[in-house]
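Hey, sorry to bother you again with one of my protein questions. There's a protein on my desk that I can't quite get my head around. No rush at all, and the record is pasted right below.
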Amino acid sequence: MRILKSIFTLLMVFLLQGSFGQSNFDFSDERVLERLKKDIYTLADERMEGREAGTPGERLAAEYIANQMLEAGLKPIFNESYFQEVPFPGAFVEGPDNFLVIDGVTYTFNEDFFALPNTGNAVVNAPAVFAGFGLEGVEGIDNYGGLGSVAGRVVVLDYYSPEGLNERLDITTREALAQKIELAVKKGAAGIILVNTLSWQSDPRISLGMEVPREGIPVVFGTERVRDVLLAKADVEVLLSTELERPMYTGYNVAGYWDNGAPTTVIIGGHYDHLGYGGSGSRSPGEHALHPGADDNASGTAGVLEAARYLVQSDLKKHNYIFIAFTAEEKGLIGSRYFADSEAYDMGKVNYMFNFDMLGRLTDNKLSLIGTGTTPIWEAAIDHVAPGHFNIRKSPGGLGGSDHTAFYLKNIPVLFFFTGIHDDYHRPGDTPDKVNYQGTLEIMKFTYDLMRELETEDRLAFTPTQSSDTRRRRTEGVTLGLMPDHVYTGEGLKIQAVMDDRPAQKAGIANGDVIIRINDDEVSEIQTYMRALGNLKGGSKAMITVKRGEEVMTFQVQL
């Protein structure tokens, strides 16, 4: 914290003095490599604690980035500040009212029982009934047969499935669990307690960070002590309460401005946040370990800073420049969208946007450029510049899983620079010693040459593109062609973007609509939306109900 306060104090001194004169930087390869290494090693240092959005480690990284922008001579863009506060909802955490009493005996929360992320905030006092694996009509299994009605009771289920069943059905443990919970809810369960009756299975790791449907009733896992009591006799009386809370956090976009007195502006950005110590986004689940995020995305952030140093001293004066490090990309592209939607800068003045995300693992001289179809000029300009630099993999789509998306949705041509996924992606092994610094340097040179090529062009024409997202559910392959709003915390699924020429857009569903029902399935958030989508069949029609402002509208969608 002493370092953070010192940097912040230094920034305030400069701001109060109105001093933004830039340093003179040496752009020899040796000096650029030194700066890239310094920036990446600093941002990936353990003091930054993995730069998870909303944490002190991320704020320390933000202060470092702002100091580099100040040194480069950039002016603050947010009302004389380099920082834009970005509020966002965090993962669910345990509230105060979690308790379990069975036949008058109290059990300890987070020792004898654990809340599942599916749980609602509710209290139930009812007799328990054991329904085995919770299956009905699956390979001849009917665990509810002979039980009578389970409505209004606490249904006890085995967390796992019979041996080999999930493999035969081609579903994951998580999908099987969701199905048995959904079935119990449909049968009127007032609460659900999951237990492990299989001696060869370990008790599951419970993470509240998982995005799963919340059911409106208590859903918990009971350990061996709870299991033995529940299965010892029928109709034991259960008093169960669960409560989860979703706190709000604040991240910080960091941005500086260079004014060339031009009518148009170019944005160069990349996210600086990462995963902290792991959690739901980690590819090392269950491991509480520092995720340095050297490639993802200290490398892109270093690229943004180096571009700022170069461009303020260059002869590329046709545009003004905004250099921005986004927060909360790992939470759902939140920071970039917040900036693009804010009044901090007029997006109508932006000519194009470059997004640097994972510039650190260049292999075989192959660089991916995503968004090449968002203006007609990209193809020709890239083809003219690339031969002296890289073998370019082009992808035309403007929508995707990084921060250029927010600007594409503002009808701004975009290019996303990307060196590819690797084994250390979202793992503790993404460390600065594995970065290809020479490769990152060459990407910066290519960027400058490409920008120089564009200096002869006037305002770039924007071209909407078809979505390049070919992901489909294993079941029926049904998608509506939309991007959800990950910041929205109200009831329903709010749509951030509807993709052109896809089912939702063809039916008349629009950006900003909130889906509240698909056929007979209520939609309360993203996971109930995915569940409802899984009930649809390709080639059929679906009735989708949305809220548009205060108006409720229903659309018939051809799938």
Summary: The longest strand covers residues 248-258.
